[in-house]
Amino acid sequence: MKRGILIINRGSRETGAPRELKIITEKVRIKGGYDYADFCFLEVLPPFISDAMKKCPLNDLDTLTIVPYFLYPGRKIKVTVTNVMKYQKYTKTKFLVTKQMSMHPTMVKLVDNRIVDALKRNNYDIDRDKTDVLIVAHGSSDINAQRSINYVVEQLKDSYRNVNRCYLEIEQPDIPAGVEISAANNPSILVVVFYFLHEGAHVKRDVNAFLQPALEKFNLKNACITRHIGVDDAMIDLILERASEVEHAD
Hints:
The structure is a single chain. The protein is an alpha/beta fold. The chain has 2 domains: 3-101 and 231-247, Rossmann fold, CATH 3.40.50.1400; 105-225, Rossmann fold (3-Layer(aba) Sandwich), CATH 3.40.50.1400. The protein has helices at residues 16-32, 49-55, 75-85, 105-121, 143-156, 175-184, 201-217, 233-247, and strands at residues 3-9, 36-41, 63-68, 94-97, 132-137, 162-167, 190-194, 223-225. Helix 7 links the parallel strand 7 and strand 8 (223-225). The chain is elongated. 42% of the residues are buried.
């Protein structure tokens, strides 16, 4: 049986997203033993889903596993699945659609690893139970997206002194309010987690436009910032686990 996999992400104008997705796709292809692997974007810049479908050797594949590479469930995933499934009627290749990358212990592990790395990188030698964490996410009006970030926050609370979340847009608390909440806890050290898949405009500019002034306003000098999620072997394993769920379903 010949198997293919297509990873679909929202899209970004920054070069970081396609660069990281190219690496991720190749790692998934090799580790998952796929005959074909590619990535595309839902919007913003090509390659779009239509481009991927033209490029994909559908007639040579028995199955094509579609991976909505998003951190949250919601409207974007529904649009992604609707757009890609339109092409099912033109081929005998069976399309399989996975879950998104949320509500899974791997996401908690990834965030925890980012926190530990940030502390080491900034030469902070401090116990977890004396460390405060502020997770910065994008924000969504979808209640399932809110549950996804809450899942990560609640799981981390067993390890750290305080864990809070805030959002770049749409939801509250926004970033200044999130920093204020964290400051009220008088943290010895505050680790700010960039809960974003890629090094796009949000990571490079948008978050910091609110975050840095807020850290200065509330005099949080002992604060460090994590890397975004990016390329990580744990994420490769999660993609393959999601793929296996649909590929081996009864």
